[in-house]
Write a structure and sequence with these properties.
The complex is a heterotrimer.
Chain A: H1 18-51, H2 81-113, H3 119-133, H4 137-151, E1 166-168, E2 171-174, E3 176-177, H5 181-211, H6 218-235, E4 242-243, E5 246-247, E6 252-253, E7 256-258, H7 260-287, H8 290-298, H9 303-333, H10 337-340, H11 345-356, H12 359-388
Antiparallel strand pairs in A: 1-2, 2-7, 3-4, 5-6
Helix pairs in contact in A: 2-7, 2-11, 3-7, 4-7, 5-6, 7-9, 8-9, 9-12, 11-12
Chain B: E1 8-17, E2 20-30, E3 35-39, H1 46-53, E4 61-66, E5 69-70, H2 75-84, E6 85-88, H3 100-110, H4 116-129, H5 145-157, E7 163-167, H6 175-189, E8 194-198, H7 202-208, E9 211-216, E10 219-224, H8 226-231, H9 236-246
Parallel strand pairs in B: 3-8, 3-9, 6-7, 7-8
Antiparallel strand pairs in B: 1-2, 1-4, 4-5, 9-10
Helix pairs in contact in B: 3-4, 3-5, 4-5, 5-6
Chain C: H1 27-35, H2 39-66, H3 74-79, H4 88-99, H5 108-124, H6 132-150, H7 166-193, H8 197-211, H9 215-229, H10 238-264, H11 267-275, H12 280-295, H13 297-310, H14 322-329, H15 339-368
Helix pairs in contact in C: 4-7, 4-14, 5-6, 7-8, 7-10, 7-13, 7-14, 8-10, 9-10, 10-12, 10-13, 11-12, 13-15
Classes of the chains: A mainly alpha, B alpha/beta, C mainly alpha.
Amino acid sequence: MTSSSPPPKARSFSWRSKSFRNLVYQLTAVALVIALGAYLMHNTLQNMRLRGIQSGFDFIAQPAGFSIGESVVPFDSAESYGKAFLVGLSNTLRVAIIGVVLATLLGTLVGIGRLSHNFLLRTLCGAYVEVFRNVPLLLQLFIWYFVMTELLPPIETAMQPVAGVFFSKNGLQYPIPLWASGHWLTLAGLLAGGVGAWAWARAARSHLYATGLIRPVFWPGLGIVVAGGLLGWLVGGAPGGLDIPEKTELNVVGGGAVTPEFLTMLIGLTVYTASYIAEIVRGGIQAVPFGQHEAAAALGLSRRMEVRLVQMPQALRVIIPPLTSQYLNLTKNSSLAVAVGYPDLVSISNTSLNQTGRAIECIALVMACYLTLSLLTAAFMNAYNKRSLIKER
Amino acid sequence: MNQQTPIIEFKGVNKWFGEFHVLRDVDLSVARGERIVICGPSGSGKSTLIRCINRLEEHQQGELIVDGTELSDDLKAIEKVRKDVGMVFQQFNLFPHLTVLENLTLAPIWVGKLPKAEAEERAMQQLKRVRIAEQALKYPLQLSGGQQQRVAIARALCLTPKIMLFDEPTSALDPEMIQEVLDVMVELAGQGITMLCVTHEMSFAKAVANRVIFMDQGQIIEQAPPHEFFDNPKNERTRDFLSKILSH
Amino acid sequence: MTTPYPTPEAIHFEPIASRSPPRAARGLAAWLRSNLFDGWRNTLATLVVLALLALVLPHLLQWALVNAVFRPDNAACRAAAETGACWGVVAEKYRLILFGRYPYAEQWRPLLACTLLTGLLAASCYRPFWRRSLLLAWVVVVGAFFTLMLGGSFGLSAVETGRWGGFPLTLLLSTISLMLAFPLAVAVALGRQSRMPGIRTLCVLYVELIRGVPLISVLFMASFMFPLFMPQGTTIDVLLRVLVGMTLFTAAYLAEVVRGGLQALPKGQLEAAQSLGLSDWQATRMIVLPQALRLVVPAIMNTFIGAFKDTSLVTIVSLYDLTGALQLALGDADWRKFFLEGQLFVAAIYFVFCFAMSRYSQWIERHLNTGTRRQ
């Protein structure tokens, strides 16, 4: 007589039953961890009581009492700790996002350069990767900081590589547009141009499928974006005002500025992470089997088409997972800012910790922020992996 | 082109890999519609010989003329030759990130300037020809080895080449799948296309070849129609080689 | 249909001897042509790079070698300040940089300790030495290391851990934290593979939590929170706190590496072991782990290189490792101007060690031929 579902599992409580043993192990392990946690918690509470340390997150609303060297939004010492943390987070994201973009560009170029036919280029790129990978990031940051703050000229004799751009111990000062409504329209125009370029690419693709003739995509697309921006600019009244830094006797006034601390972090992180990205890109390109190139060549595909249609899709699958973890590393490495005085999240948390004594809360906040970023990145990567998996049997 | 002029001509072709002299003074003429099987011990240069025909390898000395075009560094010449020459590899080399259909339509769309609909039609025709049309939307790694090689043959045929090159097409296959690929190749042979095949499958040579060529150490040692080649090899090295591969 | 070709009777077969390739394909000229001047893009690149080198290299050499001052002479250094490097700062401060605040007269002790440990590390790389006696050697050398550094016995004067610094501290932190992290990482990796959901969750939480935060947070946590965790009245050495923090951090990354090895091992191995009647524990200990670990030796090397570089972060929690000792040494107002030369010296030390280790890791990957993907 056949039954439609398997019979219920017989539960036995003897030591010889595997499932019973597993249950015992798990309960023991969890019990041990809970016991350890309770012991530590007990000690902590006792110690905190003895030392008169307050606990709780209420300090977030209290005024911070310190000012922050640089921030995207204005901040003064009367504002709350909560706002200070937000400023720190924004500084971290600022250096992380720009760093990620620059590091990817530089890393890709160096990675491709390592595979070049040209011996000089190959050696130079190889030397770059080996040097910057084998020296600790903190030391590199210290060196860049020393260069930025000791070896550059003082502001009275600032370097002027290009008209209107000043480079000195006080950082980099550069012309920025005097923001008018016309600039918003320019941005809108660029965005519209971007959409237009994408539409052009789609149209070219369907034209190819319909007739077999290839239409150029890159240059016309770029032209559309530029035209969009130009149009927006004209419609906005062609605002031309630039706030150009000017050199007075003892100072440089005006224009936009970035501090040497920010430059140190940006350059240090970019150069360091780019060396890792270069290796990832090189690995990805080399992971595509040589037979793929032979097959594409035998079919008559030009080198450009071969790279675009056959090699890049396969190389990207190998490159993207480690690349996202390098992006995460760059964000985590930005925490070294505390050593050079750049007010990032960890640095501000450190100051708050020292002032309020709320060590656990501050550290917990910082860890929560970084964990969130990590989990978001991991989720993105898993989604990408699922989508791009090469389907096998 | 005159029907009598050979479609492939090697004149005193020499090739070196570094210091290793892999092709030595090779002279060979292949007529239109001729089917040639090339055999020989490993390292004899037979794969290199056919790879020179579609310029996957470059020869350093001598002349190599394919369908009236001389092969040299001239990119236009190479382009023209690759349109007329199809190649099937030992390791299939299908593009794993594209479906079977996309593998076949890639070159006709991007090189052959065909509209997508026409390219797909042609692809389905070729898939039917190699009897694998039902797998059109699968990915290569979802197919067996024999099926993948047949797809590779169909992919090369999609550009309607005048010459088909086979570089040990069955060497990477499990024994039970060799026959299905050989059947396809025999059918192809019956349709008048010029074929050069490097293989150890002597049954195929006997069934289909006009000429069997034996190469050793970069030289063509002996060439003859199959029945003469197998029954009455003239050169000692040929006899030696045949005794090794025909004994099992 | 067929072209007339020489019939077998007509061929008079003559074996052709091997010849050398034509002039143009070999020698220096050929190499230059294919590597540097292969097409107009490459030629342009070569010329640009050569021009840049010609601009930069002479100045660099002048600064670093020709006009440089090698003697520890402050006045001479200042005199040559703009035009030449002051390598004299290295000659003057190298003991402070390399050994931190360890008492001057006793510095032979950290030197000996480091030599022993480095020697053992180098020996462990050599495959014929991978035997049980190696483990014994490790225990002995680590014991010797601590005895030498701490003193207080065998007639050596006691030196508190607060005065340890420089290279011995870097070596100590990276080696010991990796050693301690190893058993923890193996346990966590096995736990993550297990089918018991309770244990698996604990392990996953541990790994993801630690890997999601920067090392500096972990070090701060260790520094500030450990004293709170301990029963009141006990004080914990700063060095110990930092060591625990680094161990926990390294263990999380190492656990992922070991897990990679466990996953790369074919399932058939465990099945074969079980079919022979081995218990799960025996199979894991005798069959699975030895093979899995061998598979990931290159990745373990990379983790060690990472730990070696990461020890520089202890500078931020006021331990004076190699990087920190440099900050200490050059706090001196007289020599502060020549910080860059000092930094380059320390960078060179790190580079030599890390480069050697990464070359070794690549070599072993090729020779073992079984490395999983290199991070």
